[in-house]
């Protein structure tokens, strides 16, 4: 019975067309990469070389490796034209903390130790800490004090999507498994069904200070690295980081990690299309702040009418034209672009496509 149902979804997957948004002709390419990837140095099933091979096949420029409790990872290196950047995912007593951009080895922390120790160790090493899959049934972040200190937040996590699907095996997991037999990337995309918990938690934390949105591939090799990399990545607009990257691996790694920590990186569900032509305008790009009453502009690439829509959470209101967002704060606003993507059957379902970091809405200065 289950095989028959899976076969139906496999048949439907043969009619799933990607991308939803066609590439912009002659556009300057964005630097692309995968963040939160595991190898055989911890619980991944591929060596760093195999990961680089998969990344190259997916068209990526870099991969941030975050093996569990890998306190002394190998230095940054170019492998098969892909930059492998050292990072780590620390296991603490209250959840997992990912980190990248360390200038020194992390010291003074042990697996499953207190969270404040891990946060302090990452900061001392000059790195950027990220709450990994912080709203998840298996490994949520459970400490309130340190949650307010950590600048990064995995708003969308492939691992969390998979674990959410396990709770709905017939309606979500089985369609994805069936689709994967014919169209592996479509199978991965069918898992991308966001729930409200991560966004609500993220907005709560982002009201206080500048926060970074990251999307975690959390790739272990199943599904295949290449399929995960084709579905989801982190990208930099050319005005944030233009190619080519330095051939000195350490210098290139610093370029990428500084851009990741700037808040100007974009999470892209790449299977749905390239982001060239997108921009969110009207705020200070360094502080990611704008006063109450400001109207942000969302610029979209050319697309088929009805295939894209702007969605807004927090202290902002989408105007009737669907392209401008009035900031109603003070507080924070999250603006995303969603696409009408191939669904489980022969229809379509709305899925996130472009996910920038949030904009803090600050009080308007007196007299203005």
TrEMBL record:
Residues 33-94 form the Polymerase/histidinol phosphatase N-terminal domain. NCBIfam families: CehA_McbA_metalo (NF038032). SMART domains: POLIIIAc. One of its GO terms (molecular function) is 5'-3' DNA exonuclease activity. This is PHP domain-containing protein. It comes from Corallococcus aberystwythensis. Signal peptide: none annotated. Gene3D superfamilies: Metal-dependent hydrolases. Pfam families: PHP.
């Amino acid at each position: 019975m289950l095989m028959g149902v899976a076969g139906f979804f496999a048949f439907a997957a043969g009619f799933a067309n990607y991308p939803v948004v066609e590439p912009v002709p002659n556009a300057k390419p964005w630097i692309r990469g995968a963040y939160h990837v595991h190898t055989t140095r911890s619980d991944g099933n591929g060596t760093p070389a195999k990961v680089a091979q998969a990344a190259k096949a997916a068209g990526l420029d870099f991969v941030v490796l975050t093996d569990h409790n890998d306190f002394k990872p190998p230095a940054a290196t170019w492998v098969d034209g892909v930059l492998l950047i050292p990072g780590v995912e620390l296991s603490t007593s209250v959840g997992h903390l990912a980190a990248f951009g360390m200038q020194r080895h992390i010291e003074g922390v042990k697996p499953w130790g207190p969270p404040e120790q891990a946060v302090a160790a990452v900061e001392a090493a000059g790195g950027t800490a990220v709450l990994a899959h912080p709203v998840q049934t298996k490994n949520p972040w459970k400490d309130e004090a340190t949650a307010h200190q950590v600048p990064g937040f995995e708003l969308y996590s492939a691992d969390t999507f998979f674990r959410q699907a396990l709770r709905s095996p017939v309606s979500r997991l089985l369609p994805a498994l069936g689709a994967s037999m014919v169209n592996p990337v479509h199978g991965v995309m069918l898992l991308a069904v966001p729930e409200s918990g991560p966004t609500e938690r993220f907005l709560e934390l982002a009201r206080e200070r500048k926060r970074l949105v990251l999307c975690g591939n959390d790739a272990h090799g199943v599904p295949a690295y290449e399929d995960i990399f084709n579905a989801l990545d982190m990208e930099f607009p050319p005005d944030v980081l233009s190619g080519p990257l330095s051939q000195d691996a350490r210098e290139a790694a610093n370029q990428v990690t500084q851009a990741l920590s700037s808040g100007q990186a974009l999470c892209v569900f790449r299977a749905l299309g390239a982001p060239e032509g997108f921009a969110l305008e009207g705020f200070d790009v360094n502080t990611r702040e704008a006063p109450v009453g400001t109207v942000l502009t969302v610029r979209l690439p050319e697309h088929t009418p009805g295939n894209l829509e702007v969605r807004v959470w927090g202290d902002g209101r989408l105007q009737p034209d669907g392209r401008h967002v009035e900031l109603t704060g003070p507080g924070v606003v999250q603006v995303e672009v969603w696409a009408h993507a191939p669904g489980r059957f022969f229809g379509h379902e709305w899925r996130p496509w472009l996910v920038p970091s949030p904009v803090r809405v600050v009080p308007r200065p007196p007299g203005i």
